[in-house]
Specification:
It is built from 13 helices and two strands; from the N terminus they run H-H-H-H-H-H-H-H-H-H-H-H-E-E-H. With 321 residues, the protein is mainly alpha-helical.
């Protein structure tokens, strides 16, 4: 797609966490230039602010996936209130996605090994637990911080469902794959493969991609109907929710890594992304996910979002080439 100078200038006038992605993915600047901007994420803006929220024991908000003060029986835990996003796993996700260098976290990995345990059965942090999404985040964060995550990568091979995906509710008896769980799992396995070169989960990853592609990324296999209204819900931060933009952002990364060309079955998701562009060539923030956060990193609902515009332009540039 065409990149107008005003939109690029607007995107560059942003936090380093976003700006270096623009320099790398849209402007295709020399690596030393975008890496210099990326390094600023440890000392400025969102990255620095979140690093400053870290507890002395290496955690954030005193907990692994939930804050230490979270009341599992209280109002915040009731349906529709939203998961708090201040705990260790969510904070690591943000820092990693913003491009904060692992070196800026010092001995965080070792401190978490000593001090952090999952709310589920008090399991050790780096060993993961039973939730596919949580385990995927842990794989991504572990390889970023230099941990050996091969055992947890193998967990996905061992727990892949027959039809190709994963479901965080498998421990409750679910035997059907979830679009949300499958996409989160794919991102973790791709991060593992890119970081380590270990292909132990490659076949599982390709099988899960085919599970999504067979459904044209947005439809039910049985009826051909949309899997849910959330496929059109373009929001940043998205965190865990499946959407047409988020799944295409995954496939851009995966197909570049695998040296594959776009699959025609992606076109329906691409059309959703393209149709969401406003008259000014930008993308507008959708309904935000509910839940406690450290601070806001994007605009309110209904305003033009630099994060969504970056992601959408990255996806459409890849597709249109």
């Amino acid at each position: 797609m065409a990149q107008s100078a005003p939109i690029i200038s607007w995107l560059l006038d942003s936090d380093p966490a976003l700006r270096w992605h623009v320099e790398r993915d849209l402007l295709v600047l020399p690596e030393e230039q975008w890496q210099a901007t990326r390094a600023l994420t440890a000392t400025e803006g969102f990255g620095r602010a979140l690093l400053d929220k870290q507890d002395p024991d290496g955690q954030w908000a005193g907990g692994a996936h939930f804050p230490g003060d979270f009341d599992f029986e209280g109002p915040e835990a009731q349906p529709g209130q939203g998961q708090p996003y201040t705990s260790t796993s969510w904070s690591l996700n943000s820092l990693r996605e913003w491009g904060v260098p692992a070196s800026a976290l010092g001995d965080t990995a070792a401190r978490l090994e000593r001090n952090c345990h999952w709310e589920y059965d008090n399991l050790p942090f780096w060993d993961g637990e039973v939730d596919a999404c949580i385990n995927a985040y842990t794989v991504s964060n572990g390889v970023w911080l230099g941990r050996d995550m091969s055992a947890l990568a193998q967990w996905f091979v061992d727990h892949q469902m027959e039809e190709g995906g994963w479901n965080c509710e498998w421990v409750e008896g679910s035997t059907r794959s979830s679009f949300h769980s499958t996409l989160n799992s794919l991102n973790g396995l791709l991060d593992y493969e890119i970081a380590t070169g270990d292909n132990r989960a490659h076949e599982a990853r390709k099988k899960a991609e085919e599970y999504l592609l067979e459904r044209r990324l947005i439809n039910r296999m049985t009826t051909g109907e949309r899997i849910g209204p959330w496929v059109e819900r373009l929001t940043y931060p998205n965190r865990w929710m499946y959407s047409s933009l988020r799944v295409m952002d995954y496939f851009v990364r995966a197909y570049r890594h695998d040296n594959q060309r776009p699959d025609p079955r992606m076109v329906d998701a691409i059309n959703i992304v393209r149709d969401a562009q406003d008259e000014f060539g930008r993308w507008v923030q959708g309904p935000p996910l509910k839940g406690r956060v450290w601070f806001e990193v994007d605009v309110p609902q209904g305003e033009q979002s630099k994060w969504l515009t970056l992601q959408a332009m990255r996806v459409l540039n890849w597709w249109d080439r």
